[in-house]
Methylated-DNA--protein-cysteine methyltransferase (Dimargaris verticillata), 146 residues
Amino acid sequence: MAASATGLLSQPAKPFPHTVTERQQFVNYKTQRPVTEFQFRVYDLCAQVPSGQFTTYKLIATALNSHPRAVGQALRVNPFAPAPVPCHRVMASNFYVGGFDGDWGCGQVHSKKELLKQEGIEFDANDYIAPAHRTVALFQDFVVKE
């Protein structure tokens, strides 16, 4: 059974590896594989999105010269959610709620919406970001480290 959205937000931040050595040694508990350099780059950008704002898979992909699906695949196995890497703040470029924890459009997506609602993001009846929030809450000022 999925954890409640309130329960997810109240979880302590997971330890996030910052040094090259820590990152090379880190194994994702979801996949039992090392986290790739690309995945860490996605997580670094996702961690920049503040509470009350959201971004899109496409904006992250553009910042990394990549593809939105590659970003989605990295976030699908994010071992640092919801903190310090709040992947629930990443939406489809058409403002649809998108996926969450490996699901698309169902299941865990309810938790994603609840997390965002708790942060002040509103949705329409079809699970799209409400029009009033599409520009004022859209985060796109990523700082990409080389």
